[in-house]
Amino acid sequence: MRSALIVLVSLVVFAALAPCWARWTGHPPQLAFPAFGLRPDGTPVPPGGRFWLGADGLGRDVLVRAAYAARTSLLTGFAATALATFLGVAAGLAGGFLGGAADAVVARGTEVLLAFPFLLAALAAAVVLGGGPLVVVPVVAVALAAPMARAVRARVLHVRELAYVEAARALGASPWRVMTGEVLPALAGPVVALAVLLLPAAVAAESTLAYLGAAQGTSWGAMLADGQEAYRTAWWTLLVPGGLLLAATLACAVLGDALTRRLP
Amino acid sequence: MTEENVSTVGEPEAVASAGEAPAGEALLRVEGLRKHFPVHAGLLRRQVAAVKAVDGVSFSVRKGETLGLVGESGCGKTTTGRMIMKLLDSTAGSIFFEGRDITKLSQGGMRPLRRDIQMIFQDPYSSLNPRKTVGSIVGAPFGLQKIETPNGTKKAVQELLELVGLNPEHYNRYPHEFSGGQRQRIGIARTLALRPKLIVADEPVSALDVSIQAQVVNLLEDLQDELGLTYVVIAHDLSVVRHISDRVAVMYLGKIVEIADQADLYTAPMHPYTNALLSAVPVPDPGAARGRERIRLTGDVPSPLNPPPACHFHPRCWKAQVICKEVEPPLALLAPGHEVACHFPENAPDGYVAPESTPLVRKVDAV
């Protein structure tokens, strides 16, 4: 758990320092340096010297681009996870607590979302609406809200039958008061644990869309797509963004797993 | 807010003597109370049957007395308690509190009445929110009912904690820091916060260690004397009920089969089921236990989905005759204050004439 936290914090620091990397290396992220970045035969230069982590196929600095890409990937991931958590908790709480028709809508809705091929829907939305973050974040969030809503609903069904919830009702607490005052706090542990587990899924989903060219901006997925053309002569074009993506998702998964076991 | 609702907590009010009503007036009256849980099946979710958890229960509780409600698991005693608390809507029947019909009250309409009717829960572990401090648990009723406490909520809570025998310094602790008995005391303090007139205690001690049970039972009795409380105590432990109750109602499969003063019921039980129950009470004296005749009932409690016709107890009753499965015995007053629903009661008073009938022929289980 501690090592996972260290990895995550390092990644956030690495992303936050993106402009510094650009200043220290003298290479802005979008600028190509065919004169120094490419060898006479047109292949990118390897790590070392002016390019600490090598250059990509166009002669751009892989380190600087990876730092900026980390910003896009992590921010999109966090935003999508936060939105998914909010949507999932709201839907699961409403369904589990109100029961009846509301519950049927939530239960069937999550099933439809889980059964629907996410990538297809996300690609369609990104292509039709454009691949800006305002499209990618909600699309990823809606897909990830389904497992959250399911988990929350199950937990609510359990908690609302507990004697202390009944005690609150017996004291005259209104349904709203019972929901916000007694049931919602009991969800904190599972929701936090599941949110940390959804975070790598969100980061990976964003990278997948970027890799397929459906999301705009520099992200790890877009770098992987670029690197695909150069990796035979330049392994670092794939290894750097791929390694960062792996580190981020693995650290989140380990952390989420530890939290699931530790939180009630 | 009226004046009497801002009464200070912890100061023993003379509630019992303040009531002008004559002794014996019913605080709570329940008439023909029923709860049927529908069973749905099939694609259209049609109702195919109903679990008759409570099937026509009538009783009344006088101000200041304790009514014990006993019976086996699944006989409907807890469901009855939850209906009195209006935590569960009844299928049929009426509930009168202080003469007022509260059966059809909405949750909102019920809210002011919750000050007068409160509940003690069975499980002291699940009945306290583990995320809240003792102070906020016991103080919650004041906020929910918008009751102003003259010296602040904290003071009121500390007085309540003292009243139930807890250290008021424990205000900021969490439930997990307490033992089962202490947790039950916290629950009782919360119940008392609103100064209720009626307390429905659902198995108040069954989750506690035997050595702690006596303490909590005595606490309940002391509080009754001090605050003039009326209790409906739901329990399956006949010794506890005997100790705490003034009157006892015995339930079997959703119906009351016998209701009598505590002393009458324990010394001269009339319903065969009550006899069987009492003979099953463990006696902590090997000498006395050896000479005792124990009634062993055959079979299990039938399903409330499809209860036996007429007298629900007849398939297990050694006195059953043909009439028992044809005519339901009404709950009849056979002795002063002693009502029994049986055609052939034990310890029947002189002059009781059993109905004419022929013995029931049935398979005898091989023992």
From TrEMBL, chain A:
SUPFAM superfamilies for the chain: MetI-like
UniProt keyword annotations, A-Z: Cell membrane, Membrane, Transmembrane, Transmembrane helix, Transport
Sequence intervals crossing the membrane: 78-100, 112-129, 187-214, 234-256
Pfam families attached to this UniProt entry: BPD_transp_1 (PF00528)
Residues covered by the ABC transmembrane type-1 domain: 70-256
Subcellular location: Cell membrane
Membrane topology, as annotated: Multi-pass membrane protein
Record family assignment: Belongs to the binding-protein-dependent transport system permease family.
Protein name (Swiss-Prot/TrEMBL): ABC transporter permease
Organism the protein comes from: Actinocorallia longicatena
Lineage: Bacteria, Bacillati, Actinomycetota, Actinomycetes, Streptosporangiales
From TrEMBL, chain B:
Domain of life of the native organism: Bacteria
Residue ranges of every copy of the ABC transporter domain listed in the record: 28-278
InterPro entries: AAA+_ATPase (IPR003593), ABC_transp_ATP-bind (IPR050319), ABC_transporter-like_ATP-bd (IPR003439), ABC_transporter-like_CS (IPR017871), Oligopep_ABC_C (IPR013563), P-loop_NTPase (IPR027417)
Annotated SUPFAM superfamilies: P-loop containing nucleoside triphosphate hydrolases
Entry keyword Electron transport: no
Keywords tagged on the record: ATP-binding, Nucleotide-binding, Transport
CDD domains reported in the protein's UniProt record: ABC_NikE_OppD_transporters
Region (Disordered): 1-20
Pfam families: ABC_tran, oligo_HPY
Keyword Transport: yes
Family, similarity comment: Belongs to the ABC transporter superfamily.
Protein name from the UniProt record: ABC transporter domain-containing protein
Species for this entry: Actinocorallia longicatena
